[in-house]
Amino acid sequence: GAGVSQTPSNKVTEKGKYVELRCDPISGHTALYWYRQSLGQGPEFLIYFQGTGAADDSGLPNDRFFAVRPEGSVSTLKIQRTERGDSAVYLCASSLSRDDEAFFGQGTRLTVV
Amino acid sequence: QKEVEQDPGPLSVPEGAIVSLNCTYSNSAFQYFMWYRQYSRKGPELLMYTYSSGNKEDGRFTAQVDKSSKYISLFIRDSQPSDSATYLCAMSASNTDKLIFGTGTRLQVFP
């Protein structure tokens, strides 16, 4: 397989609930990114990890959003008290290092009802 | 005003046509310019990568950057139905900075 894997592919949740979105990067890739893509828009940067640490979280919209990468591989994006405006495709990408090409996963389509 | 502007289309062309896709931007610090292709319900995939001004060609694809006009283009020659997708421009100030994407242009190539 060897590509970036995101689970689940689709997630429907009720307003106010908590959700977790998972990203399995390409093996050996130290850099990991989360983007959010709303309908008809380009991806918007959320957060970047180098190894286990969040090197840049300037794109997280508010404190309901949090992401972790505890072992420097798999990452989880966590959204608390979901709102309808959080509905979007959440994309994960990884690269060998910060200045290498980033490869995107297929995304998780989140719908908040 | 958005940092990166891109006409969302849709753009519909016959097979074999030359396609021109464009983006304008406002941040003069941008130095790295990319074009991604995104098929429906898939993640973006990198097509072309250009540093600073100039042209770059790869098969049927040519990317152009005009920093003086803050304008970038992607040309697709001999377009094929398999080229039907959304094309996203993206740019950054350095090769370690976050990418700023355009909204994407939806292209349809009909047989």
Please explain how this structure is put together.
The complex is a heterodimer of chains A (about 110) and B (about 110). Chain A has about 110 residues and is mostly beta strands. Chain A is built from no helices and eleven strands. Chain A is about 0% helix and about 50% strand. In chain A, the strands form two sheets. In chain A, strands 2, 4, 5, 6, 9, 10 and 11 form a seven-stranded mixed β-sheet that branches. Chain A has a four-stranded antiparallel β-sheet with strand order 1-3-8-7, with no helix packed on it. Chain A starts with a strand and ends with a strand. The mean pLDDT of chain A is about 95. In chain B, the strands form two sheets. In chain B, strands 2, 4, 5, 9, 10 and 11 form a six-stranded mixed β-sheet that branches. Chains A and B meet through strand 5 and strand 10 of A and strand 5 and strand 10 of B.
Structure summarized in a few sentences:
Chain A has strands spanning 5-7, 10-13, 19-24, 31-37, 44-50, 53-56, 65-68, 75-79, 88-95, 103-104, 108-112. Chain A has 113 residues and is an all-beta fold. In chain A, strands 2, 4, 5, 6, 9, 10 and 11 form a seven-stranded mixed beta sheet that branches.
